[in-house]
Amino acid sequence: MFTGLVEVLGRVDRVVEEEVGRRFALRWPGLDPGEPMAMGESVAVNGCCLTVVALDGEAFEVQAGPETLLRTNLGSLEAGDAVNLERSLRVGDRLGGHFVQGHVDATAELVERRPEGEWDFLRFRIDPRWTPLMVEKGSIAVDGVSLTLVDVGGDWFSIMLIPHTLAVTTLGTRRAGDRVNIEADMLAKHVQKLVGGG
């Protein structure tokens, strides 16, 4: 479980193609030596929950299988790319974002970006089967970042980014045509199923 509050902008050191997936060597700059990573720990990488399978100080490795690569943008990552990183929520931590599982539902394409003062407006196109789970002023995770929806259409949604989010996450450098990982609000998914909507 995560909050969608990105802790650090990490970096991909290396990508290794495996038989049925990919292995990523990642770096967490400034990782507190008093709270090192642990083998088997869950880490959200661009909002996708992955397991630490090797580690060495600030460097650690995770693996992504076929289903993960199919549903996320991790298949397009290359060495040198920036990634949003968040460690899993501990009992007693503040929940400043919203409940994020790290189970990416789909990807969306950034189709419009414009500055509005110090903020940026972003509009994304997504498979229309996901927009019924989105509501104006509701929560969404975009590349693992907990955000508030501005507007929602049949096959699109929009968000506004404050300067802090622009500075400390990958969303600050996303351009039109880029794909981002989307996790719809898990409460909306449960309600939809309970009322017979899918």
From TrEMBL:
The keyword Transferase applies. Signal peptide: none annotated. Pfam families: Lum_binding. Gene3D superfamilies: 2.40.30.20. Pathway: Cofactor biosynthesis; riboflavin biosynthesis; riboflavin from 2-hydroxy-3-oxobutyl phosphate and 5-amino-6-(D-ribitylamino)uracil: step 2/2. Its EC number is 2.5.1.9. InterPro entries: ATP_synth_asu-like_sf, Lumazine-bd, Lumazine-bd_dom, Riboflavin_synthase-like_b-brl. Keywords: Repeat, Riboflavin biosynthesis, Transferase. Residues 1-98, 99-195 form the Lumazine-binding domain. Homotrimer. GO terms for molecular function: riboflavin synthase activity. CDD domains: Riboflavin_synthase_like. It catalyses: 2 6,7-dimethyl-8-(1-D-ribityl)lumazine + H(+) = 5-amino-6-(D-ribitylamino)uracil + riboflavin. PROSITE patterns: LUMAZINE_BIND. Lumazine-binding repeats lie at residues 1-98, 99-195. GO terms for biological process: riboflavin biosynthetic process. This is Riboflavin synthase. Catalyzes the dismutation of two molecules of 6,7-dimethyl-8-ribityllumazine, resulting in the formation of riboflavin and 5-amino-6-(D-ribitylamino)uracil.
